[in-house]
Design a protein that fits this description.
The structure holds 2 protein chains of 2 kinds. The radius of gyration of chain A is 22 Å and the shape is elongated. Chain A starts with a helix and ends with a helix. Chain A contains 5 helices and no strands. Chain A folds into 2 domains: 1-67; 70-113, no CATH class. Chain A has helices spanning 3-8, 16-34, 40-62, 70-94, 102-111. Chain B has a single domain, classed as Cytochrome c oxidase, subunit III, four-helix bundle (Four Helix Bundle (Hemerythrin (Met), subunit A), Up-down Bundle), CATH 1.20.120.80. Chain B is built from 7 helices and no strands. Chain B has helices spanning 3-8, 24-52, 60-63, 66-91, 95-125, 138-171, 175-205. In chain B, helix 2 runs antiparallel to helix 6, helix 4 runs antiparallel to helix 7 and helix 6 (138-171) packs antiparallel against helix 7. Classes of the chains: A mainly alpha, B mainly alpha. At the A-B interface, helix 1, helix 2, helix 3 and helix 4 of A face helix 2, helix 4 and helix 7 of B.
Chain lengths: 113, 206
């Protein structure tokens, strides 16, 4: 493929500057969200949604994933699937039970009647 | 045979990849990035597990400099834009413009590293260490330095990688080769930006 041929592959979609402004606006929204009086869970969900949107914009337009073959898209998506599995595997640890050191456990055992 | 001649030799790529017909290198980079993304995923998931299991995990937004890191995020986004602009210039066969934008991308990466060095120094002076945290769980410091350090190493690698590409752009004769190596390098740089978006959210905002 020559550079001229690449020129004929011009990507039809939003311009790079439009993506830049979207990313900037989403970053500002993230900063607004953390100072908004909402529950921690709602803030967490909003922040993860905003970060995922930004990551998707970068992957789809800056990394040109939107214009690549579908199989390459599957390769790019693999880490997200593995990440989701990892969170599932770690769920028992994510339920909020505080870690205790061996000494703390000994103290607790000793205090039990 | 010099390095530029080797890169332009037709024997470098004998067959086309069915997934990325322009180059095998691009496919190789995507596979590498997928593996690297799993590494970052493991680190962030472990961070989540450690945080959920700790009774005295400090709120990062209260103790870490959000305004500085928000600016660092903005800087990396800007450097991603200059990276795609460099590629766009090469597509139009405008070498000088491409070199300028690639230079700006490298500058963005170097500035990011400088700010990270400042942030680390500032936090170390405040007592946040790999094995010590004045605001609660010790593992907060450990995970902060491991994750931001791992990303910082990627930025350092990216700055070196893009500088090499910048040097090669002048030596290569074919726009086709120039476009290809810049596109592959650009994939790596955008990945570094993408990972920072997640690190910024998980380590600083949540």
């Amino acid at each position: 493929m020559t550079a001229t041929e690449a020129n004929t592959h011009d990507h039809h979609g939003p311009s790079y500057m439009a993506i830049f402004w979207w990313l900037a606006v989403l970053t500002v929204l993230e900063l607004i969200v953390i100072y908004t009086p909402m529950s921690k869970v709602a803030i967490g969900i909003l922040l993860i949604a905003l970060a995922s949107s930004k990551a998707t914009l970068v992957a789809m337009y800056f990394m040109h994933l939107k214009f690549e073959t579908r199989t390459l898209g599957y390769i790019a998506l693999t880490p997200a699937v593995i990440g989701a599995l990892l969170v599932f595997v770690l769920l028992p640890d994510l339920r909020g039970s505080a870690h205790k050191t061996a000494d703390e456990k000994k103290v607790e055992t000793a205090a039990e009647p | 045979m010099n390095q530029a001649a080797t890169l332009e030799h037709p024997a470098v790529e004998r067959a086309e990849s069915p997934l990325t017909p322009e180059s095998w290198g691009k496919l190789g980079m995507w596979i590498f990035l997928a593996g690297d993304a799993v590494g970052f995923g493991v680190l962030l998931a472990s961070y989540g597990a450690l945080r959920a299991g700790s009774a005295d995990w400090p709120n990062p937004a209260h103790y870490l400099g959000i305004s500085l890191t928000a600016f660092m995020t903005f800087l990396l986004i800007c450097s991603s834009v200059t990276m795609v602009k460099a590629l766009e210039a090469l597509r139009r066969e405008e070498l000088g413009r491409a070199q300028m934008f690639l230079g700006l991308t490298i500058l963005g990466g170097a500035l990011f590293l400088g700010m990270q060095a400042y942030e680390w120094t500032h936090n170390i002076h405040r007592g946040l260490l790999v094995f010590g945290n004045p605001w609660g769980a010790t593992l907060f410091g450990t995970s902060f330095y491991v994750i931001t350090g791992f990303h910082g190493l990627h930025v350092t690698g990216g700055v070196i990688y893009l500088s090499t590409i910048l040097a090669l752009l002048a030596r290569l004769k074919s726009f086709e080769r120039r476009y290809m190596i810049t596109e592959i390098g650009g994939l790596y740089w955008h990945f570094v930006d993408l990972v920072w978006i997640m690190v910024f959210t998980f380590m600083y905002l949540l």
